[in-house]
Amino acid sequence: LNLGILAHVDAGKTSLTERLLFGAGVIDEIGSVDDGSTQTDSLALERQRGITIKSAVVSFVINDVTVNLIDTPGHPDFIAEVERVLSVLDGAVLVISAVEGVQAQTRVLMRTLQRLNIPTLIFVNKIDRGGADDERTLLAIREKLTPVIIPMGSTRELGSKRADFVPYPAGDPAFTASVAEVLADHDEAFLAAYVEGEAGLSYDDVRGELARQGRRARVHPVYFGSAIVGSGVKALISGLTEFLPTSQGDVNGSASGTVFKVERDPAGEKIAYVRMFSGTIRARDRLRFGQERDGKVTAIRVFADGTAVQRRSLQAGHIGRVSGLSDVQIGDTIALPREPSDGQVDWDSETRGERFFAPPTLESVVVPANPADKGALHLALTQLAEQDPLINLRQDDIRQELFVSLYGEVQKEVIQATLANDFGLAVTFRETSMICVERPIGTGAAVELLGKDANPFLATVGLRIEPAPINTGTEFRLDVKHESIPLYRYKAIEEFRKSLEATVKETLHQGVHGWEVIDYVVTLTHSGYMSPETTSGDFRKLAPLVLMSALKEAGTIVCEPMHEFALEFPADTLPAVLAVLARLRAQPQTPDVRGRVGTLEGEIPASQVYALQQQVPGVTRGEGVLETTFHRYQPVRGEFPTRPRTDLNPLNRKEYLRHVLRGV
Ligand code: GDP
Question: I need a surface site. Which of 248, 359, 454, 641 has the fewest CB within 10 A?
C-alpha cells in the first residue's frame, strides 16, 4: 500500500506520521514537532514553518500488508501543481483539525485526491484540544469536501487530555443501517440488495461493501483522534488495510513507472524514487524517461523496515530508489523501450502533449545579497530545481540574471528560507512578473540554400511551422528525401531528426515576442549538404535563422496565463467581492448564494491572483476562502507584452550571424 498523508499546514500531519510509525513499531520513541525531533521533518525550515519540502519513504508492515508511507512534496498551497506526484499513491489519509475544521488547503487537497480517484480516509485530529467539535467538523466535511463519508465511531471527553475515539462496535444495528443507506446511494447492485432484503443485509455484508467502495474512492471512512495523546490512531491503522487498496499492476506488462522524488547521494549521484505501475525493471536495464532522455540503471533499492535494501529488480506496484539515471527529473514517466523484431530499439512511444505539471505562471529575478555569490547561487538553485518540481530556472547570460519561475508569492519565501538555511545564501527577489506564451496563428515557411543568398553555412535547411491544436504540445517532422541527410555525420535518420528537433525546441523557447512558443508542428521541408565538408554544426547553426523567419511569416499571438478560482464569502459581502473581481479583470460566473454563504467561480489573469489573495480578507471580514489553479492560456488583448531575449537573436539575421560566425 503506497500511502500518503495530506493536511493543511499545522493540522497535524507530522505528528500523526510519528504516531503511525510508533504504532507500527518502526520507531520506539515519539518525536515531537515542537522540539524538532521527528523522523520525517528534519529540515530546519520544515521545523520553523511546518512545511514539508522533501519527500521521504518509510516502510512498515500492518496486518501482513507492506505500507510505504510517502511524504508528498511541495507546499500544500501548490499541491494541484504537483498532482502527478500524488498519482503514485494507492491511498491517502487526509488530516483535518477538529478545532480549525476544513481549511482552504484541505479543500484543494480533497479535490485533487478526488480528481485522481485516490481512495482516502479522513482523520479528524486534535480532539484533545479545547474548542474541538466533532459534529461541526463532520458538517463542514459534508458541506465543503464530500457528502459520502462514514464516521467510524464516536468521541468521548472531547476537548480534554482524556479525549478518546470509540469505534462503533461490530454488529451495531444503527451503524449498519446508516452505512447501508450511504452505500446504497452509490452502487446499483447494493441498492437492489438493500431494498429487496430490507432486514437481510448483515453487518458483515455492509462492512464488506464499505471496504469495497472505500477501496474505489467512492466513500470515505472518518476517524477521530489525537496525534498528541494517541487516541484513535489504532483504529486508523486498522482502517488503512481494511479500507484502502493495496497496489496492483501487471508485473509482466510493459514497464512503466513514475519518478516522484529525486535526490543526490553523498557522492553526488542522482537517485530517482520510482513507483512502478506495470512491468518490471532490472539493474542494467536502459530506461527511457521524459521526452527523449535515457539512462542505465546501476542499482535498485527497496524500502524495508525503515531502511533501503538492494534488489535486482523492481516490480509493478512497488517503490524503489533507482540509481544511474543521471538526467532524470521529478515527474518523469520511465519506460523500457520496446524492442521490435528487427532489433532496432523504438524510442518513440507516445509522450506528445503530456504535461507533467501545471506550468508556472510567474517569475522573478533572484539577486544574491553578495554579488560574489552568483556562482554558488546558480549551483544551489540548480540542485533545488532537480529535487523540487515547483522550481524552474532560466538564465539570462546577456544580462547575467537568474530567473526562477513561481507558482505563487509564498514560494519566494520558501525558496529564500531554503537558500539561507541549507546553502547559507542570502537573496532577494525582484518584482514578480507573469510568464506568457506565444502561439503561431498561421503557417510560415522559409528556406536557405547551400551556396546561395549569402548563406554562410554548408547546408540547405527549409522549415515550415504551423499551429497545432491547443494543448497538443510540439512536434518536429521530417519531409525530405533520405539522400539529403548527411548520414556520415549521424548514426541514423532518427538521430538527425532528434538533433534538429532539439535545435528547434531550443530556438522556439523564445518566439517573436520573446516568450516560449507552444502548440506547433515544425516540418523540415528542405535539406542538403556537401560531402565531406558539411558538419552537424552547419545544420544546427542555420536552422534557428530559417525557423525564426518562418515563424515571423506565420505570426504569433501572445497569450497570458489564466487561473480558475473558487471563492467562498459571506453572502452580504457579494457587492464588494464583485467590485474587487472587476477591478482585477476577473471573469466571474453567476454567484451561488445559499443562506449566509456565497460562492463564485470564474477565471482571473495569473498576474492578478496575488492581488486577489491580498484583497479577499479585507472585503469578506476575513472569512473569504479562495482557491486558484492554472487553467489555460488566453490571448492578450491590446498590445503584446514582450520579454527581452537571452539568446543570440536569430530574429535579426545580421546580429545572429555576427555572434555565430565569431565563434566559427
Ligand atoms: P503539520 O504542519 O500538519 O505537519 O502539523 P504538526 O504535526 O507539525 O502539528 C502542528 C502543531 O499542532 C504542533 O504544535 C503540534 O504539537 C500540534 N498538534 C498536532 N496534532 C495535535 C493533536 O492531536 N492535539 C494537539 N493538542 N495538538 C496537536
Answer: 454
* Spatial distance between the Cα atoms of 352 and 505, rounded to a whole number of angstroms: 13
As a three-state string, the secondary structure of 30-57 is CCCCCCCCCCCCCCHHHHHHCCCCCCCE
Query: H-helix or E-strand containing 558?
Result: strand 556-570
Q: What is the pLDDT of residue 569?
A: 93
How many other CB atoms sit within 10 Å of the CB of residue 398?
12
Q: Which atom of ligand 1 is nearest to the CA of 125?
A: 23
| Protein residue whose Cα sits closest to atom 18 of ligand 1 | 12
Angle, helices 203-214/173-184, rounded to nearest 10 degrees: 40
Residues 128 and 228 sit within 8 Å (Cβ to Cβ): yes
Q: Are 246 and 145 in contact (CB under 8 A)?
A: no
> CA dist 383 to 267, 268, 377, 379, 389, Å?
14, 10, 10, 6, 11
Going along 423-514, which residue ranges are E strands?
A: 427-429, 433-434, 437-440, 444-448, 459-467, 474-478
Give burial (CB, 10 Å; 0-12/13-18/19+) of 484. middle
* Cα–Cα distances in angstroms (integers) from residue 391 to residues 82, 142, 593, 627, in the given order: 11, 35, 38, 21
Element (H, E) at 66: strand 65-70
Return the pLDDT at 58: 82
Q: H/E element holding 653? A: helix 653-663
Locus of grid cell 537558500? 419
Cβ of 333 below 6 Å from ligand 1: no
Pairwise CA distance, residues 254 & 274, whole Å: 15
What is the atom index within ligand 1 of the atom nearest the CA of 51? 2
What are the backbone angles phi and psi of residue 635, rounded to the nearest 5°? Answer: -55, 140
Residue 562, judged by CB atoms within 10 A of its CB (0-12, 13-18, 19+), counts as buried
Q: What is the pLDDT of residue 346?
A: 40
HSE at residue 491, side-chain half, CA atoms within 13 A, is 5
For ligand 1, the distance from its centroid to the CA atom of residue 15, given in whole angstroms, is 6
- Pocket test of ligand 1: the residue of 6, 33, 42, 127 to mutate, having most ligand atoms within 8 Å of its CB, is 33
pLDDT for the residue 347:
38
- In the structure grid, which three cell numbers stand for residue 397, read together? 547570460
CA distance 223 to 311: 37
Burial class (CB in 10 A: 0-12, 13-18, 19+), 193: middle
**Which ranges constitute the DSSP H helices of 326-398?**
374-387
pLDDT confidence of residue 330: 81
Q: For residue 24, give every residue at least 6 positions away whose Cβ sits within 8 Å of its Cβ, in sequence order, or none.
A: 60, 61, 62, 67, 237
Q: Is the peptide bond before 389 cis (omega within 30 degrees of 0)?
A: no
d(CA 133, CA 287) in angstroms, rounded, equals 52
Binned average pLDDT, 10 residues per bin, the chain of 664 residues: 89 88 76 57 41 58 89 64 80 95 84 90 97 95 93 96 95 90 83 72 90 95 96 95 91 89 83 92 90 88 78 92 89 75 39 54 93 93 82 84 88 89 93 94 96 91 96 92 92 92 95 96 96 93 97 97 91 96 96 89 93 94 85 93 90 91 69
| pLDDT computed for residue 439 by the predictor | 97
> What secondary structure letter does DSSP report for 127?
T
Ligand 1 proximity of 226 Cβ (cutoff 6 Å)? yes
The residue length of the chain stands at 664
